[in-house]
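BUG: 3D viewer hangs when loading the predicted structure for this chain

Environment: internal workstation, default settings.
Expected: structure renders.
Actual: progress bar stalls at 90%.

Input used:
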Amino acid sequence: MMLLIGQWLTELDPGFGVLQYITLRAIFAALTALVICLLVGPGLIRWLTAAKIGQSVRNDGPQSHLVKAGTPTMGGAMIILAVSLSTLLWSDLSVRQVWIILFVTIGFGAIGWVDDYRKVVLSNSVGLTAREKLVWQTLVAGAAVVVLYVTAGERAELELIVPFFKDAAVYLGWMFIPFTFLVIVGSSNAVNLTDGLDGLAILPSVMVAAGLGLIAYLAGHAIFAGYLGIPNIKGAGELTVFCSAMVGAGLGFLWFNTYPAQVFMGDVGALSIGASLGAVAIMVRQELVLFIMGGIFVLEAVSVILQVASFKLRGKRIFRMAPIHHHFELQGWPEPRIIVRFWIITVILVLVGLSTLKIR
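Structure tokens produced before the viewer hung:
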């Protein structure tokens, strides 16, 4: 929206032409999303508290979590609101990727909202059943990837780029649809599993979003993309604005979610953030780099898979509790130590992921 206003104002004063630059709009998007969260947060927390929309705690979990019972949840709604408004305000709305990423973000947020509503408001411990959740995730993610497949203008948009290898790309063809579907759904659920400690999921999400935002800018710039040997994707640069909005909204949410948390994001936030990160990685053709950058999310998901498989096959557990952050809690690690160490690991992994752009 501001891009169109800037183009109109440029006729009056050439100085407004600076709004054409993605970098400037990305900065404004981050600041806008941050301010929205900081303004909306206190009121939302008060409303959630008054409505008694609070977190329930598992009896078989770490005893330290009992004090978290009743903490307002579904706070991820403020992230979706801030990201959506900021993206609409500062991005180029003529670019298809902008509408696709907003569709995925809001769609998965809606799925998470229904799940949270059933659990917290209706006191249904199951929420959405696994089958119901998968059906709705399939509809949203499936629609997004089909549109991306049908509207792909170049071969590079359907190739799987292999990190660390120059000119190593696998043309997916129609396999693009099931592969990218798994990326979005897998990323969504992995972030959701990670969201178990105060601030544990949101800051790694911010870091990964920042890394993907940089890649999106480079992929959308013909000269930079050519120099680095990565696909030059038309319109990808506008995803930088979205990622910057995610960074701003994430930091704004962390203001209230840092230990001890005043609010939790709930499935409405976790499912949405994870799906959006997966969708951005797909549109810039860096799914495997997302796997590296989001290593903490991968670790959390794998720990659950291994735990369930081991118990069913051997009747024994590998970890004291899964996801793995709970294992460390039961080992005696203080919650802040786990959180900060996972943050540090994510910083390293994001840097490794970015290094793949040059090390080939």
